[in-house]
Amino acid sequence: MPTNPTEAEAEAEAGQGQVAPAPAPVKKKRNPPGTPDPDAEVIALSPGTLMATNRFVCEVCGKGFQRDQNLQLHRRGHNLPWRLRQRGPGAAPPRRRVYVCPESTCVHHSPARALGDLTGIKKHFCRKHGEKRWACPRCGKRYAVQADLKAHAKTCGTREYRCDCGTLFTRKDSFVTHRAFCGALVEETGRVLAVPPPPSPRPPDLEADENVDKDNEMEKEQDDNEASPLAEADEPQQGQEVVEEPPPPPPPQCPPSPPPPPPKEQHHPVLANVDEQDMVAVAEPAVATKQEEEDEQDEDVCFQEADGFQDAGAGLEDSKLLDNDTPMLPCFLPSPSEAIGADGSSTGCGTSSSISGSIVPATTTTTSTFAGLFASVTTSSTPQSRSLRDLIGVDPTFLCLAIGAPSSLFPQPNASDPCSFAPPPAPHMSATALLQKAAEVGASQSSSSFLKEFGLNTSTSSAPSSKLSQARFTGNNTPPSQLPQARFVDNTPPAKLPHRMFTQNSAQQQWRHRSSQQMEMEPGPMLPGGLGLGLTYDSGNPGLPDLLTGPSSSLYGPKPATLDFLGLGIGGTMAGSTANGGLPALMVGRELDMGPAPAPAPWEETTRTTTNGRRRTIL
Amino acid sequence: MMQFTHTAPPPPPLQPNGHGLGLGLYLDAGARRVAAQQGWAGSFIPSTSKISLGNLNSTGCMEQLLVHCANAIEANDATLTQQILWVLNNIAPADGDSNQRLTAAFLCALVSRASRTGACKAVTAAVAAAVEPAALHVHRFTAVELASFIDLTPWHRFGYTAANAAIVEAVEGFPVVHIVDLSTTHCMQIPTLIDMLASRAEGPPILRLTVADVAPSAPPPALDMSYEELGAKLINFARSRNMSMDIRVVPTSPADAFTSLVNQLRVQQLVSDGGEALVVNCHMILHTVPDETAGSVSLAQPPFSLRTMLLKSLRTLDPTLVVVVDEDADFTASDVVGRLRAAFNFLWIPYDAVDTFLPKGSEQRRWYEAEVGWKVENVLAQEGVERVERQEDRARWGQRMRGAGFRELVLGEEAAGEVKAMLNEHAAGWGMKREDDDLVLTWKGHNVVFTSAWVPS
């Protein structure tokens, strides 16, 4: 869209008709970025157009071209009418075109700062406003334009610092800091002390020198330094490495976030873990080997878990949901603190999946409902579309509040037996985890009686039940979308959250039963407002502190409506509230997934559920 | 926006294809009060607008929800709190995008606050049980780990680089340099400083390092190593750079304005011969010293806070240079909502920045976000002296320093150049600008951290 008035164009044409040769050399000169020729035609292209690789497509063979003129040439080959712009001696030379950036916040959005060529604006848009899809496999630096990565790859690693422990640094300050605290230095200076001190501070740029020195010594001590082979590699070799190894450009669609197990697993340690490991290796070889073992084990766990999970998933053919989940699995694994026994965690996984297998019918109903609404969401649990999920900002687990949770209801015997839980990952004890702890306090006191009260599933007797929930808890770190709480587990900051609201896991089994039973037990408060959000509870006890009360007091006590806060018992509650016309707006989203299922009156439902506990919670 | 009414129309019909159909979310502080008074007997109803899921995910909306939630907690409104928490819990998964993660962190902090302010005994007990392990679960870094962790972003490195440049310039010609390192990052700045001092033209000085050990109450990152070991490594490193160095670790606390440290410095000053350059390097720690809003502290006279007191006592040491590096934010509002807003509009930066280069499952990212989460929790849930994240903005620190008798130095071109070179190695969003005489680190144009250099006036 030319913003310049046509009269400017006419003027230019007129002028050029007369003195055609004169302006030509001027035009050759490339304008500095952002200061376009005032006479130029300003073109504003949409982001889609800018990012499109082939804008011009042949209607016969479908071949795409970036430029119209190329397409015209191609059409000529098809014997189609074609039209090439020709610049006859008398014709006006083309007007210069400048391009503005479609991003309205960008300085180059203004025609006054338009960029001078199409490729330039494309690259600008890509670089500044596009996703940086190209990562350097060596240093991890990311680029939006592949050419930038290529250019970087030529120099990456050439100017770098290398510690004797084998760790590479691209920046001097990082290197210096590392060096000061790295065990390798201790060795070196330990030796230096015996010898006269170095004459002058070593110029850190000359790492090669140091490496040479080091190499000699390294040879002597190779046995305990696993990094020595690396350290011995001299500079030229290293350069070769760069050339040989150069990473095939990473698969464009590979998202950085959920690393699929094998390739990332390799990539990752190279950047971070191995370094540390190596350093330790220098200082304390024994520890290092141990760590190594652990790491290996970790990996094993990873794969085993993945396998187990996949197997389980394969077992349940119709569990679409699970299949979707499977690929995401690895991204939750790497936490070393979860270096649980391999069998422990894999069984945990397998179990949870098979458990959810038992609820497949209901699950699929729910998902399919949502499929319409949140098609993208459902798919988004696969790694490929994970970015999509980020885009729309809807978490699949949102949908799963009602889906994943029930799986814990009916623990298979082996779910509890290995007690496959490890201490929750250290740095971010999640809200749920904390809450769960809080809940446990109460649960241990009251859950058994509670369970008896409702004649529930004997396998969840008090002690196992609290334990079990925990087991699930950590187990669930892995299949993230299976449970809403899994995401809490994963990386909530270490807040102290004794809040029961999020303790879905800990007491959820009970809650679930409870909330549907609730209808029966306490029709009074429920019916008028009847809201799963625990409104009734409030009417009795408006104080916040009570809300936060541990399970011991109110959770299993007379006002369990609160338990339903998270919509765990939605099936029953929502149906009930719908029937009553008292649906809290907050619950609308929740209600959606209940929609397709027949909404029985709570009373009906509860009666049914008493006969069949499994179905009830999901409906 | 929306209202709560007591007429109860049926819930909105199900729209199976509703891409625009969101989680119906109708919250309004004003209406809330009314509804709460009426006991929530009815339901609340969509009246005018709906916030679609798309919008729901916007930062503005999340902030609004958090503010509502904080208000509800302050008002002791259990029901509303519960509801908003539920909504937040659903729209802000802790493994979502950076905004969702940010919100999740705030959510946790609010829950923590709610549990803290709750009067119920059972909760308190449960909290106590839960809190202790949480504290233990803060990752303890090895020195090498911490070094690479610190280098993930220029958050700290910016201050290091600018401060080092200023220090090296200020101590030029002094044969003995005494650095007082007041920092929360466990001497991570010192190696680069040693390196720079060691290679200065007139030959390396003798370096004295006094480290404030604020261990018990220190904010993260936590170090898995005693300062003695750390000091040994530093001395060793200095030796490798042909520089002699000694180190003194002084246990002290920001809660009493580092009194023990200042006293010790004063004693040393009496015995020193004057050929020593004293540099006080304050790296992201001054904000942990109680300010005027921190409540009554017996040590400080009413008109003065410990913060003022500290600066004044530093002034009496007549240092060669004082470097102040801190986050350019203001978390000193007395009401939690004010702090929430301030923190929300500042702490998105680390989440956003880390999102650009660390994969979601990454351990370092978890550590990083856990650290930010700690900060959020401290700002929102803690009160009194427990609340150590009391950042003040750059201008306020300038006032304080001037008030304590310091004059600002212009950070030179050298410092600016080094910082720029360092930033080039980081993500494109980082930048640097000058404001007054300070250097300011920016992320996408927003101020993050400032560095300023001061001398006695």
TrEMBL record, chain A:
This is Protein EARLY HEADING DATE 2. GO terms for cellular component: nucleus. Keywords: Activator, Metal-binding, Repeat, Transcription, Transcription regulation, Zinc, Zinc-finger. Residues 56-78, 134-162 form the C2H2-type domain. Residues 245-263 have a biased composition (Pro residues). It comes from Zizania palustris. Residues 1-21, 460-469 have a biased composition (Low complexity). Residues 1-39, 192-268, 460-487, 597-619 are annotated as: Disordered. It holds the Pfam family C2H2-2nd_BIRD-IDD. Transcription activator that acts as a flowering master switch in both long and short days, independently of the circadian clock. Promotes flowering upstream of HD1 by up-regulating FTL1, FTL4, FTL5, FTL6, EHD1, HD3A and RFT1. Seems to repress FTL11 expression. May recognize the consensus motif 5'-TTTGTCGTAAT-3' in target gene promoters. Residues 471-484 have a biased composition (Polar residues). The keyword Cell wall biogenesis/degradation does not apply. GO terms for molecular function: DNA-binding transcription factor activity; zinc ion binding.
Automatic annotation (TrEMBL), chain B:
InterPro entries: TF_GRAS. A motif (VHIID) lies at residues 177-181. Belongs to the GRAS family. PROSITE patterns: GRAS (PS50985). Residues 146-211 are annotated as: VHIID. This is Scarecrow-like protein 32. Keywords: Transcription, Transcription regulation. It comes from Zizania palustris (Northern wild rice). Residues 381-455 are annotated as: SAW.
